[in-house]
Amino acid sequence: MSEELKRLALPNGRTKYLFFGGKGGVGKTTLATTTAVWFADHGYKTTIVSTDPTVSLSAMFDQRIGGEEAVPINHVSNLCGLNINPQDAKGVFKKRLNSLMGQIKDSFGSDGISTPCAEEMATFDQFVSFLEKPEGDVIVFDTAPTGKSLRELAMPFDWAGFMQKQIEEGQKFAGIMGMDASSLEDLDRDKRRYDAALAVLRDRATSVFTLVLLAERLPIEETHSAVTGLDKLGIPVQALVVNQRILPEVIEGNRFLAARAKLQVKYQGEIDARFGDFVRTSLPLLDRDVSDLSTLRHVGELLYGA
Ligand SMILES: Nc1ncnc2c1ncn2[C@@H]1O[C@H](COP(=O)(O)OP(=O)(O)O)[C@@H](O)[C@H]1O
Ligand SMILES: [Mg+2]
Fold this sequence. Notes:
This protein is an alpha/beta fold. 54% of the residues lie in helices and 15% in strands. The protein has an eight-stranded mixed sheet, with helices on both faces.
């Protein structure tokens, strides 16, 4: 178990936001759901939010988890789940954006709304509302594979910049163009919302970004690029979990396993050398997949203790 990872994740009188990112298939959903169940089992009011538009969360808990509102998870007290679906959120956001932009159509145009970024904006908008009114002790995010999450996080920077420009120009031309001052107030309010949300993400005491990886070359490179990308946004990565390590005691003379384990030891050395500043933890490769509550609880004990 990792005392250090647990110390990072424990709520400290305020709601704690725990993010699990990384390359596809490395174990983000496994880590996020394990963490959420562990905290809920230990009496913390917990919500797990997936921003990955797959059915992983519903499949993991064997119940329908939608995007409208958080639903209580069966057989786990204190735990609710929500699946933010960019497609669903898009409609809501588009409507709001349309009314907001009604008066500034010429400079933004309806084109802006159908850019490929609209989905990320919509997801982020729903995500921002979580950071605005924290409820409960722990909110765990199972994020989409690295590249997409980064775009989601970077979006409000462009968006806040765009709004800032509109506000400044709006103030200059409002009189001449006969613009309604209230639409500027809406823009300003949104900008402040996004700025506040980013401040939450950048606060090491409130938000903890953990990257999950395997002791292999490509996940290591992807981890490096995620760390760099998040750093550019002013968001610090605090921990790494190296998943699926082959433990010496399971090798029992098997040459195939021994070869894989040897490779992992080499790459673990590289991880330690390149990411020495982060809290590092590993999880063993299990003899089964992680797809039911009892296995999630088992992994939770390995990670955070009984
Ligand atoms: N330590 C582990 N031992 C055995 N199987 C694992 C382990 N970690 C993850 N898995 C399995 O690997 C697959 C991918 O994990 P998942 O958490 O869905 O990855 P991601 O969310 O990053 O795409 C799942 O089938 C999961 O059950
Ligand atoms: Mg997943």
